[in-house]
Amino acid sequence: MRFDFATPIDRCQPWPSQKWQRYEDDVVPLWVADMDFRSPPAVVEALASRVEHGVFGYGRVPDSLRHTFCEWSQEHYDWQLAPAWQVWLPGVVPALHLASLAFAEPGDGILSVSPIYPPFLHVARRTGRIPQTASLSEPLTPGGPWQLDLEALEASITPRTRLLLWCHPHNPTGRVWRPDELAGLADLVERHDLLVVSDELHCDLLLDRGARHVPLAVQCPQLADRVITLMAPSKTFNLAGLTTACAIIPNDTLRQRFEAQMRGLQSDVNVLGLVAAEAAYGQGDPWRHALLEVLRQHRERLVSQASQWPGVVLSPPQSTYLAWFDLRQAGLGDAPQQALLERAQVALSDGADFGAPGFVRLNFGTTAQQLDEALARLDQVLGQ
Q1: Contact (Cβ atoms closer than 8 angstroms) between residue 22 and residue 223
Q2: pLDDT class for 42, splitting at 50, 70, 90?
Q3: DSSP 205-238
Q4: Secondary structure E strands in 115-249
Q5: pTM of this prediction?
Q6: Percent of the chain with pLDDT strictly greater than 70
Q7: For the chain, which domains are there?
């Protein structure tokens, strides 16, 4: 079956879009992490059928979704989930905050590594906890992979540290963590008696051929009782607006604490999001494979273009549709995101929001036509 990833879609009419309407009409937006592709036909058809029903009252998580997700996890991650481990909720970002409230007290430390997806950096303060941050090590050679610095991470831990917010694969660098890195992380977590929230939202979009995601709880089974794994169909199948995610919590006590914290603070999951999730995990894999081919081509295009820009360094992402550019030596000053917005009319994500000023994140989950237009504009500024 063929899928259309080439035809640009008007995302401003008749329904407004955060991505396309944050900036002026002449700006190419490659910032927030949603894609410009239609979701899988099976998802669209399932939603149409649900809408035809015409009743949108309070729903419940169907057993069929729980079993479908178990089958997906077994097939794709070799992870034997139990349906009871699944806590479905409206999004990964709410789950991060709920975990802070459930598993740490005011004054306790919430640890993360930077650069990192911006909401990680705000969880602690928003929940009355203490933010703690360690830095990843920059690539050993230009264009090489970012490195996990376990010594820096351990040095950031205090007796009040309770929770590590982890990202696997990593947003924004695109790193897929090696087994030895995760083994070192597991040893540190055990020695300091930490709990881990592992955001694995991008795990179904590994770009290197033959790569297979191994969840932290599977790679390091000794952590199974202290890991809350977060997954969702939102990035993989372009369903972010349907606000549906799953917290996988094998430990009964932790799961009960997490669910108790949800009461009164978190609404039920969107009934359409539940339908979309089941259709995506049950029937969306052919579309996902076709998407990966498109993203691989776009990654190659970015690597080739970046090699022609003086002072610009790109570490090719191993996963997802996000590219992390080092522009500190590109001659754009202290705010390269703003400079490119003004001079190239291309909107990227500001690295400062991720804890890394001088960097930008580019979303290449768009059509080749739109990506080429953005790169042509960037070339006029960065290629000089």
Answers
A1: no
A2: very high
A3: -B-STT-----HHHHSGGGGGGEEEEE-STTTTT
A4: 130-135, 161-167, 195-199, 227-231, 245-248
A5: 0.97
A6: 100
A7: 18-39+285-382 (3.90.1150.10), 47-283 (3.40.640.10)
